[in-house]
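Q: Could you fold this chain for me?
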Amino acid sequence: MPRIPLPRTRGTRLTALAAVVVVVAAAVVVWTTSDSGPAPVRTQDAFAELPAAPGSTERVRIDTTTYYPEQTPAPAVLLAHGFGGDKTSVDPQARELAERGFLVLTWSARGFGRSTGKIGLNDPDGEVADASRLIDRLLAGHDVATGADGAPELAVTGASYGGALSLLLAGTDQRVRAIAPVITYNDLAQGLVPNAAAQADRTARTPAAGAFAADGVFKKSWAGIFFSAGSGATASGSSSAEAPEAGQETSDNGDTAGNSGTSPQAAAPPGGQPGRAQPPAADPCGRFTAEVCQAYTELSTTGKAGAQTTALLRRVSPASVTGRITVPTLLVQGESDTLFGLDQSDATARQITAAGGPVRTIWYTGGHDGGVPGPQLRGKIGDFLWSALTGDGDPGKGFSYDVQGTLRANGTPSVRTISADAYPGLAGGSTERRQVTLAGPTQNAVRPAGANPAAVSGIPGLNGLAAGSSRLAPLFGSDPPGQSAQFAAAPFDSQVLVAGSSTVRLRIAADPAHPLPEAVLFAKLYDVGTDGTRVLPANAVAPLRVSGLPADGTPVDVTVTLPGVVRPVEAGHSLRLVVGTTDQSYSVPAQPGVFRIGLAPGSALQVPVVPGTSAGAPAPVGQLIGIGATLVVAVAVLLVAAVRRRRSHDVDPELAGTPLVITGLRKQYAGGFVAVKDLSFRVEPGQVLGLLGPNGAGKTTTLRMLMGLITPTAGEIRVFGHRITPGAPVLSRIGSFVEGSGFLPHLSGKANLELYWAATGRPADKAHFTEALEIAGLGDAVHRRVKTYSQGMRQRLAIAQAMLGLPELMVLDEPTNGLDPPQIHQMREVLQRYAATGRTVVVSSHLLAEVEQTCSHVVVMHRGTLVASGEVGELAAASGEATFRVGDPAAAAAALKAMDGVSDVEVEGDLVHAGLDGLPRAEAVAALVRAGVAVEQAGPRRRLEDAFLQLVGEDS
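A: Sure. Below is the predicted structure, expressed as structure tokens.
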């Protein structure tokens, strides 16, 4: 059996011990938390024949699937789908719930999937009545568990269209015991025709209460998306696909025995979708009821909702029944949602609380623009439903919201969760609001004829995707010149976390020269960075319609409620209120006009702030052993850290003034490859040392060991007498550019430097930004975004970053890579200016000419070893070549070629270069004189290239 080599030093033994403990702990955690996997889920497809309307003999066929857990009876969940989907679109969520132990029923609502009937937007006599009858059928199977009071343990959940269904069903069917609506609406009239302006001056108690004023502005882009989705749902009156027989079961993997468990994929007609037939071409209403179609026609042609349309939207809205909901409710709303914002969830929470129902609220980073809940949030929804139905488990705190950071790592933003015991303002008290003073005069804002060009605030449904695109994001928040009034606040001294809907009191007037009776405006609140860059949080806009404007220009004061957002506004940033006259996502009057917009006297921006604590997930009991093992790991790591700390404080007082001493350095990788071996050299104060060598010589490996990024196999490195170890405090005295700069392209050069310095944790007054930028010579370009920089400017910014704090030792790895000759010349000047301050520079390079012109000293490496070191001039002169300035270069060249041992004779103007190969230079001068050649000057030929090739060989 081969012998396994064991660590020899105390430090490496402790490290190995810690690694072993980590592996053992991981194995324990896996063992204590693993099981045989989720139980198989059995499904059953069926069609339910239900009345088309109360008292009607016509029937609709509703396509259903029931998911059975491992054991029944079980708590049941009705899972409704979103608009444009069908029962198959919620299949993954249904299986998750069934695997948790729920009996789950899904179905395709009227007009979707393979269900027949017309889309009534959750009509109480249509879709809501269907769901209630599906409960009848579900309970008839005796698979639903009952509580101590004998009532069925039944809950309803769904997203958007399905979320509204859960609220409407809970308000009309007493058998529903809990609900968890997700990213849905409270009042569809306010969702599609919102008005953020109210005449009254009021302060909301809850954080995201909307104005919900009448006579709003039509959200034409979102409404058009919905109407298109509903128009092409299925064929009118019948299903185009063959239905399975009622009661047909499917196997564990979800496939129907002898048939597909999902809708068969029929051939798609031209312009249609697979498995779905085209709606009748002659019917512009598609799958919608006549009442819904008429309402959409009115909105899309007039931009306003009449009394009949408003009544219809109110009838199909949860707001019509929330006053009767008293069951436990979890409201999950998205922070990135220009369709149904946080104000919709806020209204529902207030109404259910007033009715006596317990409410828990979660705001998360997704939404109709940002995505559906992920696995973790779906798990919280499942926990809530289980606790609400069975009384077991933890339903969670009353309120939590996600805070998405403004910086991204590998394209993914950081997210933290803030939790509070209750949703502010529901059970007494009110939301804390910060007063932010806005400044700006009353301004004219023009609405052009046809409302074109229009401001672009976002792309409905794609805002989250487009905001992450460097090409599309700058298009958002564009306000055409002359079409808006702007009011700015002073920069914040510290971060302000906006959590909800801000309010402001505005003064609006018509232009007496061109009076209009009403103004349609759009308010937006921007986060403005230190470099002037504006970001519109969540692409959210507050539309407002102000009616009754006096023709003589007398102003009207209104309170404007801005969209509910969660946004950390960083220190140094400010808020800017923009009130414009157009927005491409809304229906704007085509008549041109001019409006005077100003701040009402004494008005300030009221910014909601919701304090709380960072939420943490409780550890399952089964993982306690793993936690104990982790504590053991922590102790082992602390022991290793203690050893390393002692090594990092290993100081040689005699070298305290010497920037760098490397002794016997060696680095051997796994497999036996030796990158650096027996390397020793010393760098004195004030030197510019060039670490020279061909590619693969070990230069970068040496610098990485110098920076503590990798650990030497043997030998040591001392900086100002301190031994280098990973994380050694003396590393703060080194400025480096070794691993790449990693600049954030959307920030300016100066902002990148400030961010880097802040990450070091050192005081800002120690950064010496001005000196570093002056040496780097970036000029005004430092205020531009880095993505506009050339490669040379990026390199100079990287040098400036390395110079922050004016380190006593600066280490640069190939700083001229990718630069053209003028940029290389500029970089040389940068390094020389820094060296002129009396500090020390180490530059790794394979460019001989640059080292020769920039450095005072040089260390030559080849195949991991030191082959030469010293002053550049001395090393260049050691090549054995001589240069003669003569009167007759041709005669001199002939005389030198005739001498034994002389080689490589080269004529360059009045200079003759020759390799003497050990021949004394005086003998060569004598031979030239004997040949009658006048010699004006003779000396060594100082060319580093020749010395380098002599040291490392021509093949390198």
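A (continued): The chain is about 25% helix and 25% strand.
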